[in-house]
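Morning F.,

Quick status update on the modeling queue. The single chain you submitted on Monday has been processed. Sequence for confirmation:
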Amino acid sequence: MGVYRRGKQYWMGYTFEGRQVRVPAETTNKRSAEKFYHKRMTEIAEGKYLDIKKNEKVLFKDFAETYMQRHAIPYKKSWKRADKSHHASLIPFFGEKFLYQITSLMIEDYKIERQKVVKRSSVKRELCTLCTMFNKAIKWKLLHDNPMKDVERYKGDEANNERVRYLEKDEIARLLGFCRDLKLRNVVTLALHTGMRKGEIQQLQWNDVDFQKRQLVVAISKSGFKRHIPLNDSAMGALMAQPKQSNSSLVFPNEEGKTYDFRKAFETALTNAKITDFHFHDLRHTFASHLVMSGVTLFAVKGLLGHRTTEMTQRYSHLSPDFQAKAVRILDNVITVLAQSAKLTEEMDSVTIATPIIASV
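Structure tokens below.
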């Protein structure tokens, strides 16, 4: 065993995990072959070498199913709209490749092709799922390295991924005015005054609401922690106005007692109110933005939104152009007072200098 010649190329022979392995050194130079052989022996001795043949049997499309069953479905509430949706794009591109065959260059090609069809933000979310899949493959001893580590990040990802769309006060009034259905109006009002996510509102049950303490509980939030949300008068009014249904424990069920799908009704209200470029999740942004504009600290907003870090809350702290304009106009008064004070001082200095001259005359 060692380095030997077969035809024009050199091969390597060694023992790995109790079996003999013979592989081409992919060189016609003996010295290079020996160097490659010693490197492989060092990797095996240090436990850094992973026999790639173990991975050759794992196709990406097969691993995608394993990932869904062992990770996404059991541990992620958003697996249907996130992982399953992303797989619909990832599998056609990578499905017939073995895990070890997928390179960073292939992923860069995927980015280019996908950007022709969807927005950059969508591609970024798909790549996040892909990266998680590779990390799980490594953890489960099916892959040695994550090719995503060498994939170039989009320039300005953080800025481009932030939505600054939220409702001004007049838009809020128009939207609520066109929520003709009581249930929809109550849903929108609760979202505006609590910052709750769509799924949290849809899954809210009556036993999660404590009218005496004026709070409700989100048992399992997106961050994975229980969250207590205080209720102001408007939120309390929306909940108290919502009739209970005998066929469901949900606060906002449909007629059959199941999850209330208000997407079409909400979109109709937006259209009638002439509000564009707005999604239901932006009500959460509206909630946070108006709190910040009212002087509430980011730390307090972080707690209300259930964020783990202040950095996550930062994207909800954008101020409206009108509010910024008012803030800048404050300087008008400050600078004007300073200018007037400086002018008065200058005039007083002139009088002081002139007085002795008059006296001498």
